Amino acid sequence: MSTGTVALLVAAILALDLVIFLRVIRPQLRKRGEAARAAAHAALEGGVPVREGSVRSFGVESKGVRQVRGSGHLAVTDDAIVFAMAAPSGVLRIPRDRVTAVGEARGFLGKAGARPVLRIDFLDEAGAPDAVAFDVGRDRDGWRAALGGV
What we know:
This protein is of the alpha+beta class.
């Protein structure tokens, strides 16, 4: 095969990959994100979010390092913090009066990202200490402000 033929073949494969991503994968990701947002709003039980957005979960401390982590929707109201994971679906609801600290961490449960993560320490239903961490993007200060008063 000539160099031109190989280059054309590579270009065709990349174009096909792009079409598959745009037509199949991206709509599925959007659909899962919308479902996570709807699940978060349902778990808020009518509360109006003071801050919400798409985030990446680094997990819940009590579930250990082998848990499934992933993207989802985080919403904060005056009464609760809710995270709904996009896939697999699942909801974590933390009453605000159970939050003991909000801060930053370089990593969580053995995982580290490119930037610090937002860490929320809280008491679980049994009163035992637990924590969760999220990559909320660059506006960690905005999220901490929404979680203020802790």
